[in-house]
Amino acid sequence: MLLYAVALNDSVCRDAARKAAAGDPANAEQRAQTVVDQARQNGKALNIRLVSPVETEVISQPRLRRDPETDALINPGGLVTGTVILTTEMEMTPLALHLFLIQQPPLKFRSKQSSPISYVIPAN
Asked: What's the rounded Cα separation, in Å, for the pair 110 and 89?
């Protein structure tokens, strides 16, 4: 049972990291939370949570440029590179511990995963 909990936590964390890295880095935590919420709703992991903050490290991204004709800032679009790092935590009390050690706190398992950002900013 403990091995299953650890593996499930790792799986949800990995999926959340991939989803968080698959879009605008500004919304990474929201996308990761969606994956964790879905795992809870599906009954896979009722006692799992996302540990804030979700770290986003952007290495490079397109910069705004000034249009020489209108003097307005324009977005040239392009690739965003970097990494998303997040942590999930799962709590559980094994039945054997619950029966014999009632006052003990639940066991906590943490998983930390990273995924490369794969996002292209559309040009304006």
From this structure: 4
The separation between CA 70 and the C-alpha centre of its own chain, rounded to angstroms, equals 40
> Residue 77: is it exposed, middle or buried by C-beta count within 10 angstroms (0-12/13-18/19+)?
exposed
**CB 89, CB 110: distance < 8 Å:** yes
pLDDT at 11: 92
Q: How sure is the predictor about 35, in pLDDT bands with cuts at 50, 70 and 90?
A: very high
CA R_g for the chain: 20
**Cβ–Cβ contacts within 10 Å for residue 67, how many?**
9
DSSP 59-116: EE----EE-TTT--EE---EEEEEEEEEEEEEEE--HHHHHH-TTSPPEEEEEEEEEE
The pTM assigned to this predicted structure is 0.80
